[in-house]
Amino acid sequence: MSALKLLEQIVGATQVLTGEAMTPYLVDWRGRYRGDALAVVRPGSTEEVASVVRLCAEHKIPIVPSGGNTGLCGGATPDETGRALVVCLSRLNRVREIDTDNDTMTVEAGCVLQAVQEAAHAAGRLFPLSLAAEGSCTIGGNLATNAGGTQVLRYGNTRELALGLEVVTPQGEIWHGLRGLRKDNTGYDLRDLYIGSEGTLGIITAATLKLYPLPVAQRIAMLALNSLEDAIAMLSRARAGFGASLTGFEVMMGPVLKAVVRLFPQQRLPFEGPSADSPWFAILELSDSESAEHAQARFESVLGAAIEDGLVIDAAIAENIAQSKAIWHLRESIPLAEAELGKSIKHDVSIPISLIGQFVQKTNAALQDKFPGIQNIVFGHLGDGNLHYNVARAPQQTEQELLATQYDVYQLVHDSVHAHDGSISAEHGVGQLKRDELPRYKSELELRLMKQIKQALDPDGLMNPGKVLQA
């Protein structure tokens, strides 16, 4: 009996897709990578995932795990050989349990992030992971890439929000590691090994996640700033003034936000006059556990002093939920504006916060020297040192001419990141996009240890081949 017929027996004929039905699963979100597959299978339970994996192990069929397909590095796209099976986890979308006494919730990997947030809120709790793709990305993908988002400053990456995992190994066994424990010192931390591994060591099918009390009050402001250095100084003041209540600090180049409001006229900057032409903007978010009055007083005190000292040009404080959403919508629309403007060369990097100003200044200058007229699109999560340092074409360039310089731009930017003690991947993962870059920036020992782990857990190399590590 063929492998496809055996798959149909496991998950049902309607959940095994072939031909044109596979198309949405064979192209990454950015349209950069296109592959082919033996089939796309959509199991409905962890047990079905395990049965599918056992079948693949027996027939030596490569496996590409897939969730919401919102990744930016080609990590969920199969290669062009058509040999791999795409295992889509979208049907594993149940919230299994919410324990408000333990402040945990156990959810399946196919749960959309926004649905997890809403389930937590309905239980009177906060699940703080938040990013632009939250309406379509899934928890499994968030864990597989160790996603970050806008509140890492206060709550940490996805890794810090996961207490336990359920994982199907490359041999088709199920590791039942869904423990809601904050302390468990009983050997190697397998959970952290799977988180961030991009499906190359096993398939995450469920997770036990941390919950937090809902904030009593939130205050959000957009700040107009003269420089990135002023933004960094303001971040230090906000940390000192708000402590753990500071939940977000985003930074954006002025021209980037100008492009957003030009392309999406329904949006507008909350400033008029010279402040609207500031070279840099920041979004500051405070979550208070006492009262709205307490939050407002702290906000006004810290921002007022910063304005008086000339550190901040102007501040627009949201007065209601609609205004708060409008401010965040400006930030979240930047990737959409980039897409409207055409293809760009994207970088997801992290730099020690104290060196970010120097990194941007030196890297901008080096790019202009080598590629005159090229345009920078810089924004990101300043609070945790994560910049989306993107490069758009010069006015006289075509998209094709820009993309022809792609390798040289990557190398220049990544070399600068490395020189500033940074990482070439902060929250998007490695996937296919940065796989061949790793040997340039990781030591031989690091790569050898990673390959030894891969060999030990997946000796046949069937789990998401061609991602993270070179063959």
Task: Please provide a written account of the structure.
- The chain has 471 residues and is α+β, with helices and mostly antiparallel strands.
- The protein contains 17 helices and 18 strands.
- Helix 8 packs antiparallel against helix 10.
- The two termini are 31 Å apart.
Please describe the structure with a list of short key phrases separated by commas or semicolons.
single chain; alpha+beta; 17 helices; five-stranded antiparallel beta sheet; 471 residues; seven-stranded antiparallel beta sheet
Structural class: alpha+beta
| Number of E strands | 18
- Residues in helices, as a percent range: 25-40%
Q: Order of strands in the sheet with the most strands? A: 15-12-14-13-17-18-16
Spatial extent as radius of gyration: 23 Å
Largest sheet: 7 strands, antiparallel
How many DSSP H or I helices?
Answer: 17
The low-pLDDT segments are: none
Shape: globular
First and last CA, distance: 31 Å
In percent terms, what proportion of residues is strand? Answer: 15-25%
Mean pLDDT: 94
